[in-house]
From TrEMBL:
<keyword id="KW-0175">Coiled coil</keyword>
<dbReference type="InterPro" id="IPR038799">
    <property type="entry name" value="LEKR1"/>
</dbReference>
<protein>
    <submittedName>
        <fullName>LEKR1 protein</fullName>
    </submittedName>
</protein>
<feature type="coiled-coil region">
    <location>
        <begin position="63"/>
        <end position="97"/>
    </location>
</feature>
Length: 136
């Protein structure tokens, strides 16, 4: 009976040892798979970090270009604003001069009209005097 029980326990022990070895092999395989997955994820993380660094660098470069362009446009706008102010000032001076010249021309035309009228009257007086002197 003891021999049979011992034999039975040995067989059961062997079966359990075999199951333990199988479980350990499966566990080792799973550990290997997990290690491979961890390494793969680490590589993926490294690649994504590199891409992120490149994107940050590109964005900073792009922002620098935009800042320079904004500065250039701002300077250009300031220059154009100054030119516009100078042109408005020049236009104002030219309009003032034009107004002055128009007044001068108007006065000279009035004087010419008055002189022409006076000349006409003087001619009439000369003609009248000639007629009178001719009649005498």
């Amino acid at each position: 009976l003891i021999s049979s029980a011992t034999k039975s326990l040995r067989m059961e022990t062997e079966i359990l040892e075999k199951k333990l070895q199988d479980a350990q092999m499966k566990l080792a395989e799973k550990d290997g798979d997990k290690e491979k997955e961890i390494q793969s994820l680490k590589r993926l993380i490294s690649e994504l970090e590199f891409q992120l660094t490149m994107e940050k660098s590109n964005n900073e470069s792009f922002l620098d270009k935009l800042r320079k362009e904004i500065k250039h446009k701002s300077d250009e706008l300031e220059k154009l604003t100054q030119e516009r102010t100078q042109l408005i000032h020049s236009l104002s001076q030219v309009q003032e001069e034009n107004s002055l010249l128009q007044d001068t021309v108007r006065r000279e035309c009035e004087e010419r009209f008055e002189l022409t009228a006076a000349l006409g009257r003087a001619r009439e007086q000369v003609l009248e005097l000639r007629r009178l002197s001719g009649a005498l």
